[in-house]
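Just wondering, does anyone understand these tokens?
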Amino acid sequence: MTELIDGDVLDGVSATTLWTLHNRASEAKRSDGVIRDPWAVTLFDSIRYDYRKFGKPNQSHALRAVGFDTATRRYLAAHPQAEVVALAEGLQTSFWRLERADALREVTWYSIDLPPVMELRRKLLPREDRVVELAQSALDRSWMDQVDGSEGVFITAEGLLMYLDPDEALDLIRDCAARFPGGAMMFDSIPRWFSVRTVQGKLKLSDRYTTPPMPFALSPDDAVALAGRIPGVRAAHDIPMPPGRGMYKLLANPMWDAVGVLRRGRPSLTLLEFAP
């Protein structure tokens, strides 16, 4: 039997990648799952960890991943030689999902995360010639020097910005827009009420786990308003969350956005277009 890898090497915000892996892999294992993600299942089964401290798995992170995949495919369909930059990629397996969908024919993929996370990826995921691994913080702008971007660049910040201070998050967006004209960036946001609970240490997934603080929050309308707030961002789009099963299908109904308090109180996916 292959020896399992110890997931306790990750802590703090880095350990949240095991939370998202728990949700995504659990969903991928279901016959009616909202995502097909064989490599997530492999990772999940290869890492020894107390996943149950994250509570009962749900569809949220799998649906988020599907939303990012869809937007990435659309950008690459229009820019087939573009580069993809996955900031704070964690244990995401987006490259292999998109490769299976034949969306990455000429794409170079930059995987960026802190050294302990990158070490886990190297132990558990296959080496790919088109994947450039950079073991560093997404806030260390030296990754930008590695990316050409002349044929387009799609930057993903999946599950990242909410863990940053507001100034750090907005500065990162601003620097990406300035450095990669004509590119695009996608990120997800949490609502303010959710952020407040995490900062106060009140968001407990179980009696053994409290989420780290998430100080950066944006409503869908705040996120769309970045197009007029940050130089170089020419357009910002609120991307609908893919519908799931049961309650997740109901919550994806656009009718809820007609009620202001509900629109402001939901999580969101945002796609930014950078000016040429």
Summary: Residues 64-274 form a domain with the Rossmann fold fold (CATH 3.40.50.150). The longest helix spans residues 60-78. The chain is about 35% helix and 20% strand. The chain has a mean pLDDT of 97.
